[in-house]
Amino acid sequence: MEKRQELYAGKAKSVYHTDDPDRLILEFRDDTSAFDGERMESLARKGMVNNKFNAFIMGKLQEAGIPTHFDGLLSDTECVVKKLDMLPVECVVRNIAAGSLCRRLGVEEGQVLTPSTFELFLKNDAQHDPMINESLAETFGWATPEQLKEMKALTYKVNDVLKALFEEGGMLLVDYKLEFGVFKGQIVLGDEFSPDGCRLWDAKTREKLDKDRFRQGLGGVIEAYEEVGRRIGISFD
To answer: Is the pLDDT of residue 1 over 90?
Structure first.
């Protein structure tokens, strides 16, 4: 597959056209950001770790019948994905209270949420990804009611699969965000799933093993990502 011109460069990933109009190359860079890009840093090995982590998780989700854009690894930091028409809506599931939920509602971090919550956010960096609802998404044309229903169902299905996977590795899946797009009329999971876009805690100690280590200046960010991966069977060699 021929890698062609850059289509888009985000905070931590770059996307490239290929000689196949239905496929793109997704490159994971070592760049790390927090607080809407206000804090940026390069962390050695991060691109490789997140690329392999994402490939493993996407494989598990595909095995469970969840459609994803992932087609295969291309290199240590690159993978081939289907070209989706992305929907500008993030789907967030929270199993345990943390982060913005605690700040918004004044609830205590660590409270188990039963049932798990589901939220929608608009992908808009300039507006700091504001929280929205299904009515707003439909009114402004960000997603149709049918698309929203399918995205919600798939997001909860992902939760069932990954909560069990991380529990086997002695970890708690606290919360996560997903992005979806349309490929040939079908709603498909896009973007990535890595410790950059979820919260993972050690089940016994509640040690944070995700991007909060970067946000909160705890150090050992990539070491924590690799530890998560090893616990669920990923090799980074």
So the answer is: no
Q: Which two tokens stand for residue 130?
A: 């504001």
Secondary structure (DSSP) of 17-32: EESSTTEEEEEE-SEE
Residues 49 and 222 sit within 8 Å (Cβ to Cβ)? yes
**Which single residue is written with the structure tokens 């793109």?**
24
Percent of the chain whose predicted confidence (pLDDT) is above 90: 96
Cross-strand pairs, 180: 189
Residue 36 has pLDDT above 80, yes or no: no
For the segment(s) 85-220, the CATH number from 3.40.50.880, 3.30.470.20, 3.40.50.1820, 3.40.50.970 is: 3.30.470.20
Residue 39 pLDDT level (bands cut at 50, 70, 90): confident
CATH number listed for the domain at residues 3-82: 3.30.200.20
Residue-wise pLDDT for 119-153, tens only, equals 999 999 899 999 999 999 999 999 999 999 999 99
Is residue 25 within 8 A of residue 78, CB to CB? The reply is yes
Query: Sign of dihedral through CA atoms 225, 37, 174, 156?
Result: negative
CA angle, residues 209, 219, 118, in degrees to nearest 5: 35
Taking a C-beta distance cutoff of 8 angstroms, is the pair 153, 145 a contact? no
Geometric angle at alpha carbon 189, from 185 and 193, rounded to 5°: 170
0.85 surpassed by pTM: yes
Which of these, 180, 197, 6, lies nearest to 84 by C-alpha position?
A: 180
